[in-house]
Amino acid sequence: MEQKSSFLSLNPFVTSFKLSLKQGLYVTWHLIRMRRTFTSIDGVKMMQAKTLVMAFLGLVLSSAAAFAQTPTLLKQHKDWAAYSHASGSGKVCYALTKPTQMLPGDRNHGDVFFFVSSRPSEGVSAEPSLLVGYPLKDGSTVTVDVDGKIFNLFTKNDGAWVENAATEAQLVAAMKAGRQMSINGESSRGTKTSYKFSLSGVTAAIDTAGSACR
Asked: Which pLDDT band, with edges at 50, 70 and 90, does 101 fall under?
């Protein structure tokens, strides 16, 4: 656990990844989803969609000067996508998805993503983790439920990780064999939060990301 805390605080990938995630990657993901969503809507909503796309593109251009390298989409696999990112400490590859449901519905959850990451330079392969848009309660545990199989993740700031490699492998295996994943946590303000994730495409996305970082 100490080794992971060191990575969280010292690895320069963390800062650049979060910023690029909320800019370039966040834009890319939403453009992909919008192409599916806005194929059969009325003219007013289409105009709103086009306005949103232009705003997203403006954000990408404004962030280009700040980041020479942003995450590269390797392939979209249904509800999951595989990305690679070149950082100062080496190449990072990961499968990523967003929740299909976020509760409570009246709260601002920010950007929420679930990853399965590989960092060859650190000997890390298929590491599952959760990133939310708010600080999690100090010392709290995030619970992952994959078709009834329960896994506990330790938290730090706005992220959650599995404590050991053996359990990581078990969680990833359950995800590949599962149909749906739900996650429960608690914010620093004491708000109980829960998320549902589709597992459609997860195996292909993890394999694509893993192959890119071999």
From this structure: very high
